[in-house]
Amino acid sequence: MRIGDLEFGDKPLFLAPMEDVTDVSFRILCKEQGAAMVYTEFVPSDGLIRDADKAIAKMRTLPEEAPVAIQIYGHIPESMVEAAKMADNAAEIAGGHGADIIDINFGCPVNRIAGRGAGSGMMREPDKMVAITKAVVDAVKKPVTVKTRLGWDDNSKIIVELAERLQDAGIQALTIHGRTRQQMYRGQADWTLIGEVKNNPRMHIPIIGNGDITDGPKAAAAFERYGVDAIMIGRASFGHPWIFREVRHYLDTGTELPQPGVAERVALAKRHLDLSLQYKGLPRGIFEMRRHLSCYFKGLPEFKQTRMKLVTSTDPEEIRATLDYIAERWADSPIETGNVYDI
């Protein structure tokens, strides 16, 4: 599978862009665990053109996470074009590696984005969506891709026709989340329309499927039944970055890996913490790490008190000591697997 000049091999797995989740430390960890490509958090186009430090910082990527896509969102054509140009030159503007791909977010369903016409709010204005896409494609040198949904609601699932129009606008790959905006993340993802887009004889760009892929068997079934070129994994990676290793192993061998034990999870949590501190410093590196820490140990019995200690401490050494305690205290404990959901 190829996007532009990037070669990803057969049946690649991508880390979905997730706000407040896919920062540089998590992206590197998922890359180490087998993600073929990672995406930044959503970068607001209006924030970039105002020279907002936070928005620019989100564009900073590192060579060890490449290939990496910078995802931008917005609803004003002129702002999106300017933001795309900045993403195209992210290495000079934000430092680091820059972007290998520029991805347009037409899929985020949250009210503060979709409610003002950006993200999946664009599903109500397909002509404007296509026009913005064409303007971005024409403005940059790097490959442009789009992530979107089936439609605004059950009465307007426009993705089959829309996919053709986006392809005609010049995008080089399309990611489809198998839900409408109105569904948010409720119910089951509908992959039938993703398969219809992929099997449309007019389509020649790669189609990336997204939604409810939580393990190897589900990924294998999605590739086989719907013929997608790649799969994107989102929420199922949260507190579970090794999902890429697990799914890759199943796709390659047809067998499932055993779940990592407590010692391995502690080692990964320490690695994640070290990366977060390295790239964000104190106290931000700890504050923004908290949302991840306890997720590594979801399913441990009698863990509530220790979990609270993990997510309230501001001292890196105290956090590491708590992780060491977890490794010793629950060394032989089975971990109950809870429900995980893809985004």
Write the layout of secondary structure elements.
Blueprint: E1 2-3, E2 6-7, E3 13-15, H1 24-32, E4 37-44, H2 45-49, H3 53-58, E5 68-73, H4 77-88, H5 90-94, E6 101-106, H6 111-114, H7 126-139, E7 144-149, H8 159-169, E8 174-177, H9 192-198, E9 207-210, H10 216-226, E10 230-233, H11 243-253, H12 262-280, H13 284-287, H14 290-293, H15 304-312, H16 316-329
Helix pairs in contact: 1-12, 4-7, 7-8, 8-9, 10-11, 12-16
Q: Could you please describe the fold and organization of this structure?
A:
Helix content is 42%, strand content 13%. It has helices at residues 24-32, 45-49, 53-58, 77-88, 90-94, 111-114, 126-139, 159-169, 192-198, 216-226, 243-253, 262-280, 284-287, 290-293, 304-312, 316-329, and strands at residues 2-3, 6-7, 13-15, 37-44, 68-73, 101-106, 144-149, 174-177, 207-210, 230-233. The chain has 2 domains: 2-253, TIM Barrel (Alpha-Beta Barrel); 262-329, Non-ribosomal Peptide Synthetase Peptidyl Carrier Protein, Chain A. With 343 residues, it is of the alpha/beta class. Helix 1 (24-32) crosses helix 12 and helix 4 (77-88) packs parallel to helix 7 (126-139). It has 16 helices and 10 strands. The strands form 2 sheets. It has an 8-stranded parallel β-barrel with strand order 3-4-5-6-7-8-9-10, surrounded by 7 helices. Strands 1-2 form a two-stranded antiparallel sheet. It is globular.
